[in-house]
């Protein structure tokens, strides 16, 4: 009889552990925010950008029925770590930051931004919305650099090695065409910002620069003749536009609510003004993790370049 009591007690304890574990697993995938923390990655001066983005708090709060706090991170890595530590619920992540955050913290992509296309030769804005953008290699007009192989022995302005447009896509495409940026007597100069990449070519400090298409428009005030003097020599395949991503444990119900809220907000005049000013977003489309598989292939090739 005493053995039976012990066995029954042990069984109840084990059952409790299983139930608690199950509840824990369930709650880890069903986070329901009481207050939503939204963070942007700075594309310009962080303080000025935060001031422009702050009005989004009221619009989101009205849509979701909970308080919303909007802030701007210091850089890509900061926002990825903040989402991993559950300090940020929603992040406006560039594609490379998204793939990193998904790999490390299983974040969930909800939406991709839609922007207007650019038309050559002067980066005129078109009227077609697209979910991707392009990287370009810029050179000075009349430099004699007409192909990727002509970049051997040249000096190139680049961004950080995690930047899709400022390093990954152009460097990998060069490798595909027989030019290794780390081995073919090429000198790279890391600059902070795509506008600085454009100016480095304009001022003859470098022979070429890796930038996103449209970057020349960033410097037209300082260099009115930039379109004539600095021209695209090469354009890559399309790179996924930046994302609206949520922390990995966000409930499916709230993923849908947040996704719909952003879609509805950008259709309003006030919401569109905010998002087009901050990030040039014109709309949003549903996104899924597999949309970034081509980017991952490029990133893998780029990692081998850095070894």
Produce the secondary structure layout:
Elements: H1 2-27, E1 36-40, H2 46-53, H3 56-64, E2 68-72, H4 76-84, E3 90-93, H5 95-105, E4 108-119, E5 124-130, E6 132-133, E7 135-140, E8 155-158, H6 164-176, E9 187-190, H7 194-202, E10 208-212, H8 226-229, E11 230-235, E12 239-240, E13 243-246, H9 252-265, H10 269-279, E14 283-286, H11 293-305
Parallel strand pairs: 1-2, 1-3, 8-9, 8-10
Antiparallel strand pairs: 3-13, 4-5, 4-13, 4-14, 6-12, 7-10, 7-11
Signal peptide: 1-21
Pfam family, one: Phosphonate-bd
Family: Belongs to the phosphate/phosphite/phosphonate binding protein family.
Descriptive notes:
- This is Phosphate/phosphite/phosphonate ABC transporter substrate-binding protein.
- Residues 1-21 form the signal peptide.
- Keywords: Signal.
- InterPro entries: PhnD.
- Belongs to the phosphate/phosphite/phosphonate binding protein family.
- The protein is an alpha/beta fold and 307 residues long.
- The chain has three domains: 1-30; 36-116 and 252-305, Periplasmic binding protein-like II (D-Maltodextrin-Binding Protein, domain 2); 135-236, D-Maltodextrin-Binding Protein, domain 2 (3-Layer(aba) Sandwich), CATH 3.40.190.
- Helices cover 41% and strands 23% of the residues.
- The protein is built from eleven helices and 14 strands.
- The chain has helices at 2-27, 46-53, 56-64, 76-84, 95-105, 164-176, 194-202, 226-229, 252-265, 269-279, 293-305, and strands spanning 36-40, 68-72, 90-93, 108-119, 124-130, 132-133, 135-140, 155-158, 187-190, 208-212, 230-235, 239-240, 243-246, 283-286.
- Strands 1, 2, 3, 4, 5, 13 and 14 form a seven-stranded mixed sheet that branches. A five-stranded mixed sheet has the order 9-8-10-7-11. The protein has a two-stranded antiparallel ribbon with strand order 6-12.
- Strand 4 and strand 5 form a beta hairpin.
- Helix 3 (56-64) crosses helix 9 and helix 6 packs across helix 11.
- The termini are far apart.
